[in-house]
């Protein structure tokens, strides 16, 4: 696609990738077939190809309107289009930069600005989100349904292992997951403990930066990235093998550190090494001998009964961030099959559930429609449980109240 970037953008280093990304697009339209919002709305402007056309016009200097912002806001940034694209168009990077421009050229109404500011002040901070969540859980029975579905029930907490193995891996508590689903990281520690690995928690770490980045506070996101790198880097130098990812949304952000800080002389190399060290738990387990875990699971369920029979059918949801951003499609299902679980049949696994970070809060109507369709696709085989690999998807799907939803690691924990 021939593109002449307007001087106001060509002179800014952050927009340097735009021209190459736009020129890679050949308008084939394969992306529309796998775009959740296009399939739902049938509007070319709500598919990747149409949004690319709008961003091309914008970066060439044409007027940016509220209509442009409206259609970019509707994008989930699920990156399913990237998996489909035969030309390797980096749509995720393009739409991130496009949103920076529309935020400047087509200012939001004050109420939208306040909502986004509020989300940025609460979600990325454990010390703020945690107490508010506990308050919400206390008054949950009195809340209207539209709010109640965003407040998960409190659950009994697992016991973290006390281990001191020679092998060490790192864990970032993150923000929402630490309060809303603390059992996920404890389950990860238990599983690794069975393999002779200590999971060291870096308690001083903060949000990975995803919330601020996707809400266009890019400098704040980079500040959070640098803070985490300062904590992670010495541990990697001391011999830690990996940075364990239990929330694929955070994993996708952490694996982008190298790209986002590529021009930062002080942090570029460290950021790249941290991105390489960030490994999803399913990727880590795929490199380990899982015989101890398999034996323990079979002993727990009864050797003659079988693991699958004991738990019933389990539907595996693969988050967009895991399959499209981290490029680990179907890995969790394959692992659970290997361990003996009875995994249920599903369909349209490539389509987003509608969570997409803050999307479920900012675009509730579209988000709920996508969730309803995803629940149907996950329950065609009547599973007793749905498992996923991302906290946002877990809370979103669980809010529907149809089938219990857990993180897949909880199946392997005590």
Mind explaining what this structure looks like?
- Helix 4 (48-59) crosses helix 7 (91-105) and helix 5 (66-73) packs antiparallel against helix 7 (91-105).
- Among the domains are: 7-105, Fumarate Reductase Iron-sulfur Protein, Chain B, domain 2; 291-412, 3-Layer(aba) Sandwich (Rossmann fold).
- Helix 25 (391-398) links the parallel strand 6 and strand 7 (405-407).
- The chain is 51% helix and 6% strand.
- The chain has a 4-stranded parallel β-sheet.
- The termini are far apart.
- By secondary structure, it is α/β, with parallel strands linked by helices.
Task: Give structural attributes.
6% strand; alpha/beta; 51% helix; 414 residues; Fumarate Reductase Iron-sulfur Protein, Chain B, domain 2; globular; single chain; Rossmann fold; 4-stranded parallel β-sheet; 3-stranded parallel β-sheet; 7 strands
- List low-confidence stretches: 303-309
Mean model confidence by pLDDT: 93
Q: Which strands sit side by side, in order, in the main sheet?
A: 2-1-3-4
Q: What's the Cα radius of gyration?
A: 21 Å
- Beta-strand portion reads 5-15%
Q: How many helices in DSSP terms?
A: 25
CATH structural fold name of the domain at 291-412: Rossmann fold
Total DSSP E strands:
7
**Biggest sheet character:** 4 strands, parallel
Can you describe this structure in just a few lines?
The protein is an alpha/beta fold and 414 residues long. It is built from 25 helices and seven strands. Among the domains are: 7-105, Alpha-helical ferredoxin (Fumarate Reductase Iron-sulfur Protein, Chain B, domain 2), CATH 1.10.1060; 291-412, Rossmann fold (3-Layer(aba) Sandwich), CATH 3.40.50.1860.
